[in-house]
Design a protein that fits this description.
Helix content of chain B: 40-55%
Shape of chain A: flat
CATH architecture of the largest domain in chain A: Orthogonal Bundle
Strand content of chain A: 5-15%
Structural class of chain A: alpha+beta
Largest sheet of chain B: 4 strands, parallel
Radius of gyration of chain B: 19 Å
Distance between the termini of chain A: 54 Å
Shape of chain B: globular
CATH architecture of the largest domain in chain B: 3-Layer(aba) Sandwich
Number of strands of chain B: 8
Number of domains of chain A: 3
Helix content of chain A: 25-40%
Largest sheet of chain A: 5 strands, mixed
CATH class of the largest domain in chain B: Alpha Beta
Number of strands of chain A: 5
CATH class of the largest domain in chain A: Mainly Alpha
Structural class of chain B: alpha/beta
Strand order of the largest sheet of chain A: 2-1-5-3-4
CATH topology of the largest domain in chain B: Rossmann fold
Distance between the termini of chain B: 46 Å
CATH topology of the largest domain in chain A: Fumarate Reductase Iron-sulfur Protein, Chain B, domain 2
CATH superfamily of the largest domain in chain A: Alpha-helical ferredoxin
Strand content of chain B: 5-15%
Oligomer: heterotrimer
Largest interface: B-C, 45 and 40 residues
Bound molecules: iron/sulfur cluster, FE2/S2 (inorganic) cluster
Chains: A alpha+beta, B alpha/beta, C mainly alpha
Chain lengths: 247, 300, 135
């Protein structure tokens, strides 16, 4: 147990983890607060950077009927937060042969007909920790609009909270992922500049540089690596490296 | 006055012929409508359980979107969507307790009290243009085309949302509409009957019999075609017609149109506005035989 | 003619549930049979709408529930438009369906519908069907 005596009263706030009260420093994220309280994450934690979707947390606040959600690694604790982790919620992904699949709405309907059980309750959108308009992408798919579904669901990190709240028992995020795959891989126009760059590399654009690097002794290679120019953390879009030789 | 347009899911896919022909016709008639920027599936069937409000949320959400878009009217084409939206609107206007519960549940939206008026496309034509004025706009009168007007269930029942406004006795909006286009509406005994609806999912045999009896009645009426406004009716009576004919005797081979497709043709719009490739093959052929549209260039 | 109904056969609780979900007073039914005569599906029903009303009046809801009648009803609303007593019979049918569905029972399994049928059907067939036939 952490030694709470040493902390000043003002720094500590009460939170409830699965019903049990703990005093934790007010500046911590939910994830760090849970660890501070003595728990160890075996599952329910991955990137610690708000990307992997492993740390979804559901909570309530004293005196408030609403259900809140957040990523434990990104959300700072509040006094009297009642929380629990939902590291996983069962939502089965169908198997399919992507190569032979047609990029049309019917392909999705055949695999996930329960799509049509959505009642537009909007519970999914309300719970989504990424502020994805889940109902809107489900609505888009019901009308066969893969492009809109792709666009609207783009920030989804597959945490599964939407599926945990769904009145129609849909696995929304798997359905959206299939839509993005079909749209992204088979419908969206290929990026022309990407094709050009890939071609130029295949044609040997960096061949000489690579040979030079391969010939270097390890020490010099390490020095080159540690001294490489990094993009500053707060740079804007105007930032360019001082040496553009590789491009 | 701003009119919002609610398409419904099927009009964006299999019933694109209903949507495209309607929108092209509206443009030709100078009626401006704006599709809702955000909308969800209305649920297709109105919830009939007195204690079940969750299934009212979908249509009410759409009504809220229309209100928020500043619309006075919300026009729909699909009979089912019309029925659901109109009844949900009525509920929000008249049933105070339910309205409050629904508004409380949808705490992410601004309360709704039935501010918008829901109209079906047929009533929009009747009210804003009128049959006489429509007749004057017709460039290709559909002379000699005998049409069986099929209302089905959801344009007419229950009475409080029936299209046609003050229609007394038998409904006649579709007949009036067809007459304005120069076509001949025939007496059709199954005009107000059910097409079999969603029976296909649970009682396919009985559903097929139901659709078959509607088709047989259309045959007895000596109509050249059936006209309707619902993609589910079109599926049961049109798309499935071949299957029915294979199993039930006495089923005629009769094209099925959305009413807006005939409107587009009568207004002299290009045949491409009708999207007839989405109908049964016999549909376009009938219009060609009657010389209302030309055969597509590729066919000659 | 007199009919004897055993008191213990009456299921008041079930009868009240039908009344509550449907919002209809089944005792208003005078057994004229209009509903059955206009119902497009009654030819396929072993218990017709009129008979269903009679059984419910007598508290005999179970036999109606175990028949196909509520699932053959297409919610066409013809009966209720024609009922001379103003009973919304369609809502009574809905109540019967709801009593079954609310036990978390599905009458169709969406995942068991053949893929070709799903591809061919308009979306409203599936939406309407799932609303009426799944819990
Ligand atoms: S859409 Fe669903 S799975 Fe994706 S981030 Fe939101 S709640 Fe999580
Ligand atoms: S939670 Fe499920 S039923 Fe509710 S709006 Fe989202 S997808 Fe639809
Ligand atoms: S740990 Fe990956 S999103 Fe929080």
């Amino acid at each position: 147990m952490p030694n709470v005596q040493k902390e000043t009263e003002a720094d500590l706030i009460p939170i409830f983890i699965m019903g049990k009260r703990y005093l934790v420093p007010e500046s911590l994220t939910i994830m760090k607060a849970i660890e501070y309280a003595g728990y160890q994450f075996i599952r329910g934690c991955g990137c610690r950077g708000g990307i992997c979707g492993a740390c979804s947390t559901v909570y309530r606040k004293a005196g408030d009927y609403k259900i809140y959600s957040g990523l434990a690694c990104q959300t700072v604790v509040e006094p009297n937060m009642y929380l629990t982790q939902i590291p996983f919620f069962p939502a089965l992904r169908r198997e399919y042969d992507y190569e032979t699949m047609e990029p049309v709405a019917e392909s999705i309907y055949q695999l996930y007909p329960e799509l049509f059980r959505c009642v537009a309750c909007n519970a999914c959108t309300k719970i989504c920790p990424m502020d994805v308009q889940v109902l809107d992408y489900i609505s888009a798919l019901k009308r066969g609009d893969l492009e809109a579904a792709t666009r609207i669901s783009f920030d989804c990190i597959q945490c599964g909270l939407c599926a945990s709240r769904c009145m129609g028992e849909l696995p929304q995020y798997h359905i959206a992922q299939l839509a993005r795959r079909l749209h992204g891989g088979k419908l969206a126009p290929r990026a022309e500049h990407l094709r050009q760059v890939v071609e130029s590399i295949a044609a040997g654009k960096f061949a000489d540089v690579m040979e030079e690097l391969k010939a270097l002794p390890v020490d010099e290679l390490r020095k080159l690596y540690t001294e490489r120019e990094l993009e500053p953390a707060m740079s804007d879009e105007q930032w360019r490296p001082s040496n553009n030789a590789g491009l | 006055m701003k009119i919002s347009y609610y398409p419904g899911c099927t009009l964006k896919t299999k019933a694109k012929n209903l949507e495209d022909s309607a929108l092209a016709s509206l443009a030709a008639l100078g009626i401006e409508v704006e599709e809702l920027e955000r909308w969800n599936c209305c649920g297709a069937v109105f919830s009939l359980a007195d204690d079940d409000l969750i299934h009212q949320v979908a249509p009410v959400r759409d009504l809220i979107r229309a209100r928020d878009a500043g619309a006075d009217k919300l026009v729909t084409l699909c009979s089912q969507c019309y029925n659901v939206l109109a009844r949900a609107n009525k509920l929000m206007r008249e049933e105070e307790e339910k309205r409050e519960t629904i508004n409380l549940f949808m705490d992410e939206e601004v309360d709704y009290h039935g501010e918008v008026q829901v109209v079906h496309f047929l009533d929009l034509l009747r009210e804003t243009i009128g049959w006489d004025a429509l007749r004057e706009q017709v460039k290709v009168p559909l002379e000699g085309l005998k049409v069986a007007p099929f209302y089905g269930c959801t344009l007419l029942r229950p009475a409080e949302v029936a299209v046609g406004g003050g229609d007394r006795g038998a409904p006649h909006v579709l007949q009036d509409f067809l007459s304005a286009l120069g076509a001949t509406p025939v007496r059709f005994s199954a005009a107000e009957e059910c097409c079999g609806a969603y029976e296909v999912l649970i009682n396919p045999v009985e559903g097929m019999r139901r659709a078959g009896s509607v088709l047989a009645a259309a045959g007895e009426s000596h109509a050249d075609a059936i006209v309707l406004s619902c993609p589910l009716c079109e599926y049961n009576l049109g798309r499935k017609q071949g299957d029915i004919r294979a199993q039930v005797s006495g089923i005629p081979d009769i094209p099925v149109f959305y009413f807006t497709q005939l409107l587009a043709i009568a207004l002299g719009l290009d045949a491409s506005a009708g999207r007839f490739e989405l109908n049964m093959a016999s549909a376009r052929k009938l219009l060609q035989d009657k010389k209302f549209v030309e055969a597509p260039a590729t066919q000659v | 003619m007199s009919i004897t109904i055993l008191l213990r056969a009456l299921d008041r609780a079930m009868q009240e549930r039908v009344a509550e979900i449907s919002g209809q007073n089944v005792y208003k039914c005078m057994q004229c049979g209009t509903c059955s005569s206009v119902c497009p599906m009654s030819g396929d029903m072993e218990i017709t709408p009129r008979q269903a009303m009679l059984l419910i009046q007598h508290g005999l809801v179970d036999p109606v529930l175990s028949s196909r009648t509520p699932w053959l009803c297409a919610s066409c609303h013809t009966c209720q438009v024609r009922c001379p007593r103003g009973i919304e019979v369609t809502r009574v049918m809905e109540a019967l369906r709801q009593i079954v569905l609310r036990e978390n029972r599905d009458m169709v399994n969406p995942r068991e519908i053949p893929a070709e049928s799903i591809a061919e059907m308009p979306q409203i067939a599936l939406v309407a069907g799932f609303r009426k036939l799944t819990s």
